[in-house]
Hints:
Mean pLDDT: 89
Largest sheet: 8 strands, parallel, barrel
Amino acid sequence: MSRALTTSRCLQKSLSAPKSPSCAAVPRLGSRSHLQTRHSSHSPLGIPPAAQRKKVTINTLRALHQKDEPITMITAHDFPSAHVADHAGMDMILVGDSLAMVALGMEDTSEVVLEEMILHCRSVSRATKAAFTIGDLPMGSYEIAPEQALESAIRVVKEGRVQAIKLEGGLDFAPTIKKITSAGIPVLGHVGLTPQRQNALGGFRVQGKTTTGAMKVLEDALAVQEAGCFAVVLEAVPAEVAALITKKLKIPTIGIGAGNGCSGQVLVQVDMSGNFPPGRFLPKFVKQYGDVWAESMKAIEAYKGEVKSRQYPAPAHTYPMPPGELTEFERIIESKRA
């Protein structure tokens, strides 16, 4: 009989009869020990936060913007990275196409395809209970026509289980954004440096450094606002320009390399947490808040050393067998040898 079936039957008995020795280990429903019921090592992680938050919605984000309270956003690409971001209290979690590099080892964002983005969105959404989740539309999934973009957006929301989508582009993509928002799907805009168009921009270059360039960023931001975006990412834009654009807009701006005059900020989680080897290039705007790589190396090297020296697993990490059963098992083995 499986452990799950035994547990289920014991729970049923516990509701109608006194505890029996065979059911004594079954935790009471609703108790903390019940939340920590034993699972296999590859089960979903942990328990809900002690202080659970209400689900962040579009209205929550608008309220934060009206109060001039900065909006926090971070990327996540799988269940563990989303799990920790949600527990840390992020307002928004973005399944960004940067996962092409940080999760899939690709050269740049142009390689990742829609099906891969949907898979990662689905993984992130399983862990995200409170934060507002957004899925990136990858290059090639929305540029051909507004109808193609709407179809892709529907798939990301419906199959990826996120609450909104993000796409890059300004004035030229306003009709595309309007097509998606008209269908009831929230859109996060993205202007300034648009990495999917790095080849057309001559590489990863700061945008809006000249009067003409700054006017172009403003024009793009106003266009996506008019098309129905609930917020817009300003990437790699001078801080002064971003602050002025933020004042001109009615929707929140989320800065990345755009100074602290924006309505909120976003960083790639792998970058800000230090989950990369020494010597890796980091953009100027990234502040490293941790050193996950070093901590992981320390733990894995310690594990390797204890396995090699047979320190691990210790008796505390093994499952005991009743002495009588062990003696009988040894007797049977010896008798088979004879």
